[in-house]
Structures are given as C-alpha cells and as structure tokens.
Amino acid sequence: MAxxxxxxxxxxxxxxxxxxxxxxxxxxxxxxxxxxxxxxVCPVSVHLADxxxxxxxxxxxxxxxxxxxxxxxxxxxxxxxxxxxxxxxxYVILGHSERRALxxxxxxxxxxxxxxxxxxxxxxxLCVGETLEEREAEQVExxxxxxxxxxxxxxxxxxxxxxxxxxxxxWAIGTGKTASPEExxxxxxxxxxxxxxxxxxxxxxxxxLYGGSVKADNAASLFGQADIDGGLIGGAxxxxxxxxxxxxxxASTVEKSAS
Length: 259
Ligand code: PEP
Fold this sequence. Notes:
Blueprint: E1 7-11, H1 18-32, E2 38-42, H2 48-55, E3 61-64, H3 81-86, E4 91-94, H4 97-102, H5 107-119, E5 123-128, H6 132-136, H7 140-155, E6 164-167, H8 181-198, H9 200-205, E7 207-211, H10 216-223, E8 230-233, H11 240-258
Parallel strand pairs: 1-2, 1-8, 2-3, 3-4, 4-5, 5-6, 6-7, 7-8
C-alpha cells in the first residue's frame, strides 16, 4: 500500500442518540486500540462533544459529515469549520453524494468548503463518484475528473496535499451493491494518475478510500487492491462489531505487505 496508512472512516449519518453514540464510540475505541490503521468516526454535529469525551484520549479520530463554507454570519442552521475544529474534529466529509443530490451542493461549493476546512487546520474527505446512469453511459472518468477539477480550480494541486479522497459510486451507497475490487481499483488508479500527473509526490501520498456497501465480508478483497487505502463506511459503521471487523481487514493488508 505504498506507505499510505489505511484509513477507515465511519459516516454515522443522521443516526443515534446521545447514549447510543457514546456506547458505539467506546466499543470502537476499545476494539481499535493497537491496530495499524487510522480510525475515524463522524457523528452528527450535536453529538460531537459526547463522542469527543470518549475518543479524545484514544487513537480514534473525530470528524464531521459536512460544514459551512462561511466562517460566521447570517447563515441560519449552518456550522463553520472553526466551530468543528473547536469540537475536536480533524476531518470533515465533503461532497457526499447525499449532500450533492438531496441538498443540491455543487462541485464548486464543495471546493470552497475544502478550502474552509483546510484553513481551519482540518483535512477534507472529498467524496466523488458516478451515478448508475453515468456509469452505463461510460461517463465515469469524465464525471470524476469534473468533480476533481472543481477542487483543483479553487485550490490548485497543493490542496490535495492535505486531503483524503473517497471514491463512492452512488449506485453502491446503501444499496448492498458493491463495486467489484477490480472495478473500484480501476477508478482509484484513474484518480491517482490524475493527481500524480500534476504532482507525483502528492499523488503517491494521497489516500483514496472506497465507499459503497463495504461490509466485513468484502472489505479485505477491496483493501487488497493497490490504490485502495481504506474505506468510508456507512451502514456497517453503526455496528461496532462490523466496523471493527472492517478495520481488522484493513490491518491484515498492512500486516501482509510488511511480511
Ligand atoms: C456512505 O454513505 O458513505 C456509504 C458508503 O454508505 P454504505 O456503506 O451504507 O453504502
């Protein structure tokens, strides 16, 4: 895996109670201790403080599922990057397909959010991916290139130095349909080539996660691919046993490449 530490990120979406997220976070902190992978959990904003109290003294990192592009002001209902950073967030998921589809976020808006997150000292987890119609129309490469180009236009190649990209085919999210390891690898390789063609060092260090119905039983084959550096996990991240099994699958790829 070319010296890139795998990252397993849990996107908890709009789920949980104060009690249940604390239980989930504490089971994950206990189970992830000592694994050679970076583990990230992303609860809803109102649960950040409770989850930080659990993971703050553990190797588990905290992230948000979105943030405002504005720093402050008359933006009712928004949460800024600085506010998230103050609550212990190190990562922010941006451009998730649910935000693009349900909240009409454009790639240009996502790009501005990436800049805001980096300015606040955090790392964006930039989600890209095609719909089923786009895949069937053989537009995978152009759709993903356009999503990346919007970010490049806003911040140049240097913006990818402090960035994680998550390839999430929209048709695989929450559907139980996973891209095959070969299908996913092909897109990951395209993403890395595109970034590497602009800066070889940034491209070789960029972590590219796969997301879309990753489960304990398909994780190892996905993470075994050369350009897949971990996963962004939705449904399976809500169950500590399943999520930890996915973390262990990523750990086994590190152990294999070390031996
Ligand atoms: C996601 O929402 O980012 C995701 C990958 O969901 P799931 O794992 O449930 O497909």
